[in-house]
Structure prediction request, 347 residues.
Amino acid sequence: MAFRRSSILLGVLGVVLIALAATVRPVIASWATRLPGDTDTTMKYTGTASLLDNKALAAGDVEHVLVSDVPATVNRRVHVAQTQGDKALVADDTTVYVGGTKLPSSYKYAVDRGSLQATSAPADWAGIQPAKGLTVSFPTAPRADDSYLYFDPMTQSTARVDFKGKEHVRGRDVNNYRMTVTGALKEKATLDTLPPALPKSLAVSLLPLLPPASAAQIRRNSATLPDPVPLFYTASTTIDMSVDRKSGIVIDARFRQQLTANATTAAKPTPLLPVFALDASATPASQRDLADKASSVGTQLLVLKTVTPLALLGVGLPLLTIAVLRRRRPTAAPDTVAKEPAETAAG
Prediction:
């Protein structure tokens, strides 16, 4: 069936728009919503901390070895330092301020810009922390289940993230998650600040400060303890996170961590003192700022994944319909002219 030229053009345009509508969500939106190269987010926490006073420890001042419930602030900055295709080099810089003490830490991860899972780093990226699972945040539209893994740099291990239900925080719909991990402290920068051993006399003098079971264990085995007493450290971390259901941005978080000094007595690990403990939550100002960012990203996702495909369909389908309705009908065959019968001549 023949079509007018204008109908052909309208039909082609309609088909193109419909095809684009089918492509926007799975292809264009996925590309546009991957981790941006200019990502730079800061989250601030406030809370309390307890820590070991190394000067008091060295002086044998048992009464002041532990400084407890000191106001603490934490600044955590996560930013993309470099990108290469679908991979991003993400820097995670955290500084804890406790009284006059400043405790900085810094990690670099190679992450997939779509899933935010740790991935292999290009050969020219230096200082990348080997990791598995999530490292700094969640992807867009995070799953409401227990399927995520989260990397803990202190123990250099990966733990499961437990889904804890849904909630509303700062006007945003969020998924609540909890990550808990305990293990040997392996983070070198932190280990370098801690004493590798204690003089035996000092370890014995600390008995009143120790957990009852640990104090009893040391008393029973004091004769066989080496001098100095070697120490090893464990780290226990729990992070509660409220994650925006659309953007994947962490809007609220509570961070609890404890580093414990341990000795080995009678071939058994014996917990001694917590050398550092921190309990801090995101500040209201950080919550508001991150909720605003989540709202902005959520609007972009709505436009890309819903509004744009519907708009393309809203234009493409009518154009295709018009093209069909305006089709050219076949030209009708000319009517056969009936010949009049010849008049019979009158005789």
About this structure: The helical segments are 5-32, 54-59, 188-191, 200-205, 212-221, 284-325.
